[in-house]
Design a protein that fits this description.
16-stranded antiparallel beta barrel, 17 strands, globular, mainly beta, about 325 residues, signal, Porin
Length: about 325
Amino acid sequence: MKKILFASTALVAFAGAASAEVALSGVAELGVIGSDAYAGTEFHTDIDVTFTMTGEADNGLTFGASIDLDESDEDDAEAAIVPPGTAPRGSNAFAERTQGGESIFVAYGAMRLDMGDVDGAYDAALTEAIIGGSITDDLEHAGYNGNAGLDGTYGGQIATFSYAASGFTGYVSAEIDDQAAGTAQRDAVWGVGVKYSTAISSATVGFGLGYQSAGSVEIMGVSADIKMDNGIQAILNYSDTDGMAADYKHMGIALGYTMNALTVGVNYGKYDFDAGTENTGYGLAVNYDLGGGLVAQAGYGKSDRAGVEADQWSLGLAMSF
C-alpha cells in the first residue's frame, strides 16, 4: 500500500456537506523543572495532538468535533481499576456514555450547542486569574482556581448551549449522572452564566457571572478583566461554594504586562474554608515569543496548604504546531 505524507495539516473534502475540513494541531514542551515534590532538578518533555473536524451544511448550519489525544488516554486513576491481566479498556472517547477528551458542536447564527469534554456554563462565563504560562503550569498553585466549578461531577460529559449578541454571551449547561440500571440517579449539575465584553477608550473590559448547582451543592462566581492597549492586563475572580463537605470562598487576582514579544504575569489566590483553614499561593511567569509557534517560558509557583509550604519552578520551550 502506498503511504502518503500530507505536508499540510488541513484536508478539505466535499461529501454531503457544503464544505468540510479536517485539521491536525499539536503542542510540545521541553525543559528543566524543579519542585519540593522531586528529589532534585529533572528534565521535562510533553506532547499532545488534537484532531479537529469542521463542516457546514447547505442551509448554513455549522458543525464540528475535536479530540485531544492526551485527554483521551486513560489516566492513572482509571488504569488502577482495571484488574491485572485484563486488556486495557481503551479511550472513553469512543464510548457513547462517557467522554474522553472529545467535544462535538452544532451552531447556527448566534446559537451553539457543545457536548462532551466542554466547559459548563459557570466555567464558560468566568475568566480565570492567570496570565502567561509555563511548561509545568507553575501558576496553578494551591491558591489557583480554574473555574471548573462542579464540572466533572459525573465524568465530565457536559452539554452547554450558548447564545451571543451585542457583546453578551449567555450559557445554560447540564451534566447528568450516568449510573447503571438499578442504581439511583443522582441530581444533575445545572449551570447558567453570562459574560460581557466591550471596548472602552484604549482598553477592552469584560465581566462574567456564573452559577451551578447539584442538589444541595451550589457555587456562584463573578469575574472582571481589563486589557489595555499599552500592554497592561488585570483579572479579578471571586466565588462562593456551599453544601460541600468543606465549604469555601475563593478570590484570585492576576496582573500582566506585554511589550512586543515579552509577557510577564503574576497571580495570587486564596481559598478561605469555613472550617478556618486556608490554602494560598502565588505564581510568576515570563514568556518570550520567538515566532512561528515557539515560546521561551520560565515559571515559579509557591503554595501554602494549611501551613504546609511547597514551591516549584520550570524553564523551557513551548511549541505550537
